[in-house]
Specification:
Layout: H1 2-32, E1 35-40, E2 45-48, H2 50-55, H3 67-71, H4 79-90, E3 97-104, E4 110-122, E5 128-137, H5 139-160, E6 165-170, E7 178-179, H6 181-187, H7 197-204, H8 208-224, E8 230-238, E9 244-254, E10 259-266, H9 268-318
Antiparallel strand pairs: 1-2, 1-5, 3-4, 4-5, 6-7, 6-10, 8-9, 9-10
Helix pairs in contact: 7-8
Length: 329
Amino acid sequence: MAQQSDRSDRRSSLWSEVTDAEARWRLAFQASGDGVWDWDIRTDRVVFSDGLMRMLGYEAGEPWDSLRDWSDRVHPDDLPVAMAAVQAHLDGGTPTYVNEHRLKCADGRWKWILDRGVVTTRDAEGRPLRMIGSHTDISAIREARDVVERERKLLFTVLEHAPLGIGVTPLDGDEAIYVNGRFDEICGIPRGSITSLAQSFAVVHADPAEREAAERRIRSDIEANPLAPHRWADMPFTMANGERRWVTTQRIPLPEHGLVLWTLENVTAEHAAAETLRRQAHEVSERNRELLQFNRAAIDRELRMIELKQEVNHLLARLGEPPRYDVTE
């Protein structure tokens, strides 16, 4: 009898500790502004705390007492994933239940809720009997996250449609953090081919001599002043298909962010236009030189004719004859 009494006392003590722990847990959640729920899985009865009800704009004591009262208010787009997460935890597939979903408030608005819970009691065969959890209003966090995501998508769209090739590397590293599609397009390589600065020279330059010259020039400038912006204009490279292009590359360090911004501009058309202008200027210069030589020869011939006419007039004067040519002009 004494042993039975001791076991009974220990059991009562353990239940008292569990009850006290649950009370402290509830108080902690209520103090944080979270709502608390307690689900008796056998009867499907759920106790929702007053804080949870107020969070959604309902009066305390409104008839919320089953899982259906919760599921009917979950956004239809979110319900399948939420229910799957609940079931996965009930089946023992996850250590805890965690899900973000929208719940309909009393005024018809939707609030984003972080729903967390854990099965606290199972029977001898492992079937869940009781589950407790909390609701946290994360609407402001989700709105901020949505703003960040929209800005990220906008930035990505702008970068992908920029007329320049754009790449980003760490200030103290070599790997490619980001390379936009235009960069690969200018280089004539498949998307995602560039993984680092060192590897980019081998991928872009099919001609070994060009590759060596470009890498030596760029790395030399960077090593001389790694925090200064650099610009390498009119650099040639030969692609794998034999086509030759000219590009202008810029390196812009962003030390406050620990990054380097690279830009790549295809200046092949401008290079060709400049070459055409240089060729035309050379041709005009040659024509002018030839014309000048021709004019000088013509002037020399004219001067010689004047001298000959003067000599003839001089001979005629010695013979007492009048001059034959007028050379006064």
